[in-house]
Design a protein that fits this description.
The protein has 8 helices and no strands. The protein has 156 residues and is mainly alpha-helical. It has 2 domains: 82 residues, no CATH class; 46 residues. Helix 3 packs across helix 5 and helix 6 packs across helix 8. It is elongated, with a radius of gyration of 23 Å. The N and C termini lie far apart (49 Å).
Length: 156
């Protein structure tokens, strides 16, 4: 069975865990590919072995990164993530913003005051007020979420 063949249960599990290597065919390191235990589809294995190869065997970063299908900066990022978080740091991060980044506390306070002044205001009108006052575009649902977080910071 080809390691980079059709999707199977392991590939689905790797994808769900954000550990599926999007380019297993880019890995050309013969020692890695010859080892039956190692799987080019497993991004955590690939990154770990790439970092280990440089650190334990003294291989050059540029050549090792290229053989594993990565750039030099990717090797340094993987090494730093491994040092900071262990193997969990080698998992791909979730895409998208990590927090509300447009609606700062100043804006949310302004929205709370606008609602106190006019309780009939709804999220679409509040989003328009934010655009007029602060010059940023926000979705009405983002306004609703920010206000909910502000009212109940612990998410109860």
């Amino acid at each position: 069975m080809s390691r980079s063949g059709p999707e199977n249960a392991k590939a689905r599990a790797l994808r769900e865990a954000r550990a599926l290597n999007p380019r297993p065919e880019a890995l050309i390191d013969e020692a890695f590919l010859a080892e039956e235990f190692l799987d080019a589809r497993d991004l955590v294995q690939v990154k770990y072995e790439m970092v280990r190869r440089v650190r334990a065997e003294g291989q050059p970063v540029s050549a090792t990164a290229a053989a594993f299908g990565f750039s030099r900066p990717s090797w340094y990022a993987a090494a730093a993530a491994l040092d900071a978080q262990g193997v969990f740091g080698l998992l791909a991060q979730r895409p998208g913003p990590r927090r509300a980044h447009k609606l700062a506390s100043e804006i949310v306070d302004f929205l709370e005051q606008a609602m106190a002044d006019d309780p009939s205001l709804r999220a679409p009108a509040l989003a328009a007020v934010v655009a007029d006052r602060f010059g940023i575009t926000v979705h009405p649902r983002s306004v609703e979420r920010a206000l909910a977080r502000h009212r109940d910071p612990k998410g109860r």
